Amino acid sequence: MRARTWRRIPPAARRLLAAASAVAAMALLAACGSDGDSASGGTAAVEPVTVGLASGGSRQDGSWTQAWYEGSQTAQAELGDTVKVTFVDETNSVDAYDKSAASFLSGGGDTWIFATAEVPQLVDKFAKQFPDSMVCGVEAPRESYAANICTLLPRFEQGTFLAGFLAGSMSETGHVGVVGAFDFPILTAELEGFVLGARYANPDIKISRTYIQSFSDPAKGRAAALAQMSQGADILFSGVDQATQGIYQAARTAPGTYVIPQYFDSWEQAPDVVLTSVIYNLQGVSQEMIRLAASGELANQHYEFDLKNDGVGKLAPFHELDSQVSDDVKSRLAEVEAQVISGEILVPGPDVLGTTGAGSKLDLATIKAE
Amino acid sequence: MTEAILVSGILLMLPIVWASFGEAICEQAGVLNIGVEGVMLAGAFGSAVVLREFGGPWLALWASIPLGAAVGCVLGWFYVIRGTDQIVTGILFNFLMLGLTTVLYEKYLTGVAQSAGVFDPVAIPLLSDIPLIGPALFDQNVIVYLATLAAPLLFLLMRRTWFGLHARAVGERPEAADVSGVGVSGVRFAAVVFACVLSSIGGATLVVTQSGQFTIGITSGQGFIALAVVVLARWNPLLVLPAAAVFGMTQAFQFQAQSAGFASSVPFEAWALLPYVATIAVVVASKRAQYPAGCGIHYPSPAGHRGLTQQLLEPLRRVAPARFS
Amino acid sequence: MARSVTTNRRQSLGVLLATLASAALTGLVFVALGVNPIAAFAAMLEGAFGSDFRLGQTLVVTTPLALTALAAAIPFRAGLWNVGGEGQMYAGAIAAVSVALGMPSGVSGPVVATSALVIGVVAGAGWGAIAGLFKAGFGANEVIVTLMLSFVAIGIAQLLINGVWTGAGISGTSPTIPTDVGLMNLWPGTPVGLGEVLGVVAITSAAIMMARTRLGFGLRTIGMSPDASRLAGFSIGRLQVYALAIGGGFAGLAGAINVVGINGLLARDFSPGYGFMGIAVALIAGLRPLLILPVAFLYAALLVGGYNLPVEVGISTSASLVVQAVLVLSLLALGAIRAPSLGALGRS
To answer: Which CATH class is domain B2-123+132-324?
Structure first.
């Protein structure tokens, strides 16, 4: 009788049922296994504060995600047993952010940081769903804060403004270029900050902008750089990650062309063309956020990291190209840096510079404080 | 400016050309390899490892050949011998290679590496002095010249040799080929392996002509573009070159258009759509392109081990009769 | 009779063994990654089914997988290769968010939500129909056209987010749709809502359409034998357009549900590749609408469970991609699941 019922099920469904029962068997097995685990792990004296972070790139991307990761590891080493850091990388879709956060928070996690500006809706969603946990995201300051939401913002555009000022002062052709991946406000602000800085040095400077729709494809980086160089650009700012390798290659084909990459001091990768690098010190940001979470000080407010308070946006040394930068340029650059720190020069944030073209349109007079 | 478009365009289309060579042969033999993206990733990863450990772009390029063959054997086992659905297998194979190369990259390939040891352009005397097309066609890296040579050779392979004729037979009418004594599984398996070698070279090209380094997801969908290029080229290796050029040149053009002032009124995202829209336009304009009739359908291997082994050895026997008979 | 029962039992036993063998193989992958396989499997199961909330997550992911699987399955049955479910889903999402943002403020939430869903379906159908029209009118190969249209739809989403729907702060998404526009939550404490019901309704109606209506009969006939269907009086070109439009409509619904019911806005990368996974789901389910649901559920469990791996056992999201691929590939290769071979590629 049972056999006949079984037979009435279509063959494909039968296979499925059999597979499902196998999964169930595995579930039982695994359940036994995990029971043993929790029994042995349940003896810890003090429960550490759990902090989870998610970022879209690879933890070794030489860029945004690596910086967050390194900071989180430093924090873990420094804070020891009082905190348990979970770092999830390569979350390259909204869905991946969503499910990673859900896994962490529904497992009882204390603080979750979306190390991305892409998912503000998830910050709200999870804060509402898990009122006992803290949820943070990269955002501009909000008007009001629920009890368990925080936002943070590193001000990259201050650093790229300095890089732009340097490029604008040094360009022989009066033409600089920026290469970006996607038009995404926080990233666009990096590029437009550079543009604004170049104009601050030389109001008549010509600008080329190219978005290559990829962070990592060197072929596209190279094509974009070649295109800009063929139009006269001689100093290029790279807002992309590994695709910068292609920009170095293109720059080498025309001596006197320099590249300014970002995040880390990338001088070693191409000593002959890397003029300087914009260093964002995101490691410090990551470390600080985890420290705040671990000590219970993380509050429902906005945290801003900039050139003044955290060294976000310093320029790396010129290394081998030091002789190419005149003393006059160096001293003017130091002066501008001091003005940005002191607030004499107000570089607008991503809310203003986050739109393509904003750096070209902005009236230069408006960035000088009274 | 036009020169920059031509030079960049050729560099951008080069990996797609090799991948399309492979895919064209595979599909003509009746196997739709959606996994071409994954094969390229494997080739790129392997050549980057070799480049880093042993140095020298030639060695890195050669290394992609056995690697491609090995990957081809795995895929051939799925497609031809096990007869798993080609689309599902291909899609999952792409996921697998994306994950695998990423994990291995993070474990073994990160850290600072000098971007050295790639193929530099080699100018061909006289020809490279021709205005415009000279620098684009005759002052390029050696893989560009190899691709130009490979196109007619592969064309002859598919039209004039036993392998090509049998491959096209098992791709169009596997039953008929079987009846007339052609070992369908053997020919298809050989075609998959050979195709994966070519696609793997395409992946290696991404490394040895660009930065000399692997990056996560370095193929960025170029394998899928190859699937389209193959149809555009009507499975003809000679036509692969102009078909891939449609994509490479529009891509290079859109970078130039973005950087130039005249196009600033058009948002860059619109320019970025150009290569895809151009491909659709060309496919619509070029009259009906038909896949080989047997493409995508599994043809059962002969029953029993002996029959299958015989079939798989058949292509080898053709190449080196003394050894395998 | 008795003998065939034994054969069936033996077959099921084979499937069971194949499944266990696949699990063992996947376990080896975990070992290679330096992770305790039992802990890893436990983490996956825990992640997919461990609590009401987690089961709810799995159900929520089942919906787009099932809908994009339908988007692939229906044209496949008609002998057309729709590999553009991803783009049709984006088209639906774009349309839905346009409606939700563009409605005058006086209109009540449910009305806006309903119209957003309907327009989303229409947009997905339209996006699919473009490929159908090119196929029927010019013989343009639908594999290329649907694939390229996916890139185009994703690009258009980007264009609109940056160029039209600015003013969403620094998030790089569209602005949030009004808070009263949403899909009712049906299982408190979990994200499961009306969207999941819509998914089930869609599957059921697709099954009925394919099995019981003249349109479904026509679609199946052109898939099996274009000549026969021509003799039976069907217009092949028109049916091809319908097939891709219907498929696209289901994918569009998935996109619209994402906007209205889940994210409340249009994000650049809202999909982890549902459109492509849907193809795999459709084929594993043998292109049968009713089987798509359980297969999509299991695939969703694999996906959601996989997302728990980085959190619980500390491997990267990419490593969990390897695990998923190895598991499904070995299930395929060992014959535990079977995807039927289809008709020839676009010969009609």
So the answer is: mainly alpha
